Amino acid sequence: xxxxxxxxEVKVLRIKLAPKARARETLESVRLNLFNLLxxxxxxxxxxxxxxxxxxxxxxxxxxxxxxxxxxxDEKGFSLSSHRLGYRHIGIDSKTALELNVLxxxxxxxxEFHHDSKLIGVDLVxxxxxxxxxxxxxxxxxxxTPSLYKSDLAIEEIATLTEWNNTQTLYPFVSGLHxxxxxxxxxxxxxxxxxxxxxxxxxxxxxxCANIMALKLRLLGVRSGSLIAVYMSRGPQMxxxxxxxxKAGSAYLPLDTETPEExxxxxxxxxxxxxxxxxxxxxxxxxxxxxxxxxxxxxxxFAEHSAENPEPATKASxxxxxxxxxxxxxxxxxxxxxxxxxxxxxxxxxxxxxxxxGDVVLHKTPISFDVSVWEIFWPLSYGGILLVAKPDGHRDxxxxxxxxxxxxTSFLHFVPSMLLAFLNTSEGxxxxxxxxxxxxxxxxxxxxxxxxxxASIELQFGEEKQVVLSNADCMISANFGVVRQPDNExxxxxxxxxxLCKTSSEALILSPxxxxxxxxxxxx
Length: 524
Prior knowledge:
By secondary structure, the chain is of the alpha/beta class. Helix content is about 30%, strand content about 15%. The chain has helices spanning about 25-35, 45-50, 120-135, 155-165, 175-185, 205-220, 235-245, 260-270, 290, 340-355, 370-380, 395-405, 415-425, 465-470, 515-520, and strands at about 65-70, 85-90, 100-105, 110-115, 190-195, 200, 225-230, 250-255, 275-280, 295, 320-325, 335-340, 360-365, 385-390, 410-415, 435-440, 455-460, 475-480. The strands form five sheets. The protein has a four-stranded mixed sheet, covered by helices on one side. A four-stranded mixed sheet has the order 6-5-14-13. The longest helix is centred in the middle third of the chain and has 17 residues, at about 205-220. The radius of gyration is 28 Å and the shape is elongated. Residues about 55-60, about 465-500 and about 505-524 have low confidence and may be disordered.
């Protein structure tokens, strides 16, 4: 059989631009990478797509995302200095995010840019054209060649990269999340650490109970790197269990006691924890398949006395906890968070908000949500009081109002819809001790304006998503305020606020032309 036609193979090449590398160095690196890539020429592009695709999640960019086609209509050698150069923007019919077609014909070099308007806008394509042609027209001598990473035309982009994103902050090194608590215990063992209904636990008492829990787990065969599931009612025993798991060198998997049985069994089967810790009330509610690998934590466990902290068994790079997503885009997915990431978040919060010894932080969020992590560990790391709401108390605005007022609470978190319900109670509008209310998970309603009279509200986005993306939690936050219109109706217009990339974090800034993508990323 004979075939006639043009045959071409698409090869996927990943290019990394070093900040200080010159154009010649970068081009040489690309040439070597391309040469090495040819060893894998037998792998078809469609096979690669099948291997990297997911049934539930569509890739943000196609594979490959940028396509280069080079075609020469003559056999003469190529010297850029002897060619005229021009470019034009061609439609939006590319099957990739950006496609560059280069045509060499005699002394003329033609560049054609195609793009997918859903991924890259016209203005950005024009910007790419300008920077690209500027670099091509520059001499390639090492002394004068420009950096591909920092073009003279990209002053605003450079400012964004080097100034806005200059968030590196040196915090004291901490090997484990629980270490901050241990250090605080050494400074103030008699100070109140946890309050639950009529019961107070000092830092020394809480630390002793956590040490006993860690010892028992190690005796049961739990080792560093193990994953321990927690299916318990909110209370002191649950806090002790979380601390004990971390002290034992393990990571915890929170299982909400309100989780439907099918979802709970899926998470247990998917994560395969070494052990499920529960309490005397919840063990009867635990589905039978999961109950077989469970252990009931009894009050009698903590009657023993042990003041010694166990030998450190964690590194900053070890896993601290796993929280499953809602599964709105498919099956729930376990998000693994390292100690270094959540420690960075806790240290940043202290630097930003300055929790004082004696400040009270309310813990009412179910532990299957990421907010619960800082609710528990932030106050315990810096000498505050962890105020634990009773089981199901987070659903009762009047109970919360009384709890917050009677304990002079300083910091708390509300999902916006629950915040509005809370503010509709008469008690909610007279809480003068609250310093800051954090709100996340939904869009804020205009109806929260009244709360600004006594405390500031901070809207936060991307807590768990960014801790995974950058291995250092990123908060996009804004002090929120609203403006009434002359007719005293709340404005229906959106409020523009700056996006602030907090310390030791990286920001992912989306195009304003993609509001739906932004809402999906931020969890709306």
